[in-house]
Structure of Glycogen synthase:
Amino acid sequence: MNVLMVTSECAPFIKTGGLADVAGALPGALAPLGIDLRTMLPAYPALMPLVARGTEVASFGDLPGGPGRVVQVEAEGLTLLLLDAPQLFDRRGGPYSHEGGHDWNDNHRRFASLAQAAARISFDGLADWKPDIVHAHDWQAGLTPVYLKQPGVPAPRSVITIHNIAFQGRFAAHEGQQLGLRWDWFTPDGFEYHGDISFLKAGLVYADRINTVSPTYAREILTPRFGMGLEGVLSARQSVLSGILNGIDTDVWNPATDPALARNYDADSLAGKAANRAEICTRLGLDPAHKGPLFCVISRLTEQKGLDALAEAIPHLVANGGQLAVLGSGAPELEAAFRSAAEAHPGKVGCHIGYDEGFSHLLQGGSDAILIPSRFEPCGLTQLYGLRYGTLPVVARTGGLADTVIDGNLAALRAKTATGFLFDDVGVAGVTEALDRAIRTYASTDDWQSMQRAAMSQEVGWDSSARAYADLYKEVLSE
């Protein structure tokens, strides 16, 4: 089976979030199942060296954003189809916004061009390859299923995966005529959304199957609380909606071999975590003699992640014997709150504003627990890293967090199946209660280590998820 994946990010080449990790891992996970997956994404500046050594396989003079060509190249074990359109993608800044932080004003043309190029390749195929399935990811690829629905033209089947429904790709209606869209489809039953065009809604309406990144999130987005205005569209298509959990690369994230750790360890020998904790203390100025649990945060600092509630709970965490290490960046007021907490609680709270991949590994390796108090979380990856490293997740009961963490209640502790702590109230009271539970459990070395070993035994790789994707592709082909 041949699958064309259309995405705006792909690790390790370009990444702003979990979408990139999925796009980078899925081809390798599906290959043993007989699926030849090729990944189409824009040729951003970081990818231009790959364009230079690739082979042109298609060329278009009339994409919505102007001319572009597709270059195929092998890199990092992936077959990439790079849309080389310098006027759209070869520019300084991020993939969606410029250095001032504002979205590029031509994002509608940029990502419509990606979607249209993918559809045209799907119709015509390449010299030695033609997709059976086109798998679009998030709003940036949302028009791909629309372009595939050309009357009278045979086309591959399509799937769209929602990684975060909060980002919908909404643009002014008049832009539609530039994008080559059928104007009779600009209706509430089509891609019209409150008078605008929604790229994500377009994908949800016209794709043959809709998928998201956890079973719980698939249920949540059918409700007004989580559906972000698209719950009606999804409810109408509930029969083709599914949720498949993300996995992680268990070779990259392996405490037994991770080169970023001060000392490696595994579930049979957890003593190595102490050396990693000592290194964290050195880097962040924390008290190395502290006896209570070290909690960490590795996250974008946003209210979606519930970190405003955590910031308010820091005095309680410290007063009850905890330490806190923070790695992340985001909302200026939250960055300031964590900096202030570090100043107010020297030796107990430390923060690194920014991001450092190696340090994120060290935090997983040396912390006792990782805090993820998200108000919504489609899947989440940091809790999976925490499980892998025996760093117990303390998480809100939502989305993929609820699907991957087993609460440390009395029954689960007795059965030795508990892997973390779940809570429902993402507010100061809920966060402090969860912290108290974790701190009390930490006081029992036997219970804590039992939970660590149970966590480290969980399957967090891609094997099960890859089989689920393969089954999804087979189902959509058989319809």
Remarks:
- The chain has a mean pLDDT of 96.
